[in-house]
Amino acid sequence: MEPDKKTNGAMIGLVIIILILIVGGIYIWQSRTQSGAPEEGLPAETLPAAEADLDALEQELDAADLDIEASVIDSVE
Known about the structure:
Structural class: mainly alpha
Strand content: under 5%
Shape: elongated
Number of helices: 3
Order of helices and strands: HHH
Largest sheet: none
Radius of gyration: 30 Å
Helix content: 55-70%
Number of domains: 1
């Protein structure tokens, strides 16, 4: 009987997969840094509408009654 020969096929495959992941990560990172910030691509008419929506939400939050009375807390206990 001949002794089993050790092969390095699994190690070579693992190294190739890691290299592909590294190259892909560098490619994605470079493409995101070259495209710039996403806010730069928004049309100018979108921003005032978003501000109006935020103002309306803020007014609703200010109008909401967030005070909890002590009697409600005592009734839970």
